[in-house]
Amino acid sequence: MDLCHPDPVELSSGEAEELQRIRWHRKQLLEDIQKLKDEIADVFAQIDCFESAEESRMAQKEKELCIGRKKFNMDPTKGIQYLIEHKLLSPDVQDIARFLYKGEGLNKTAIGTYLGERDPVNLQVLQAFVDCHEFANLNLVQALSSQEGASDVGIDR
Fold this sequence. Notes:
One of its GO terms (biological process) is regulation of ARF protein signal transduction. This protein is mainly alpha-helical.
């Protein structure tokens, strides 16, 4: 007698009923497994879609940041305004100063122009920009050489 595929004639009525229940449960389990596989495939598809959307958002943000830098290099005030309007930079003077201090993709002359404006906000940004520079524990020569970056942007201390 084959235990995996018993001949129904060799089974008692109780065994035949038990075999039917086992087959029914097996069928249900296989259906549940298939549903789980389908759900997993859906989740992976959603993850892929989310990652694509996130990559697209990051690319768009990088593009807007590049535009903002170009605008800044042509007209510093309009560039900062663009970056703030597109939520790439907060209007906080500390954040603006850090952005200028990093200077990634920014023209040093344009930074100097912005910091040299006599508008109260620009003056606050200038002060915060100066505060970004670390002079503690430097001797005079080191401190003066660290001013090269400041003089490159047209700031005289």
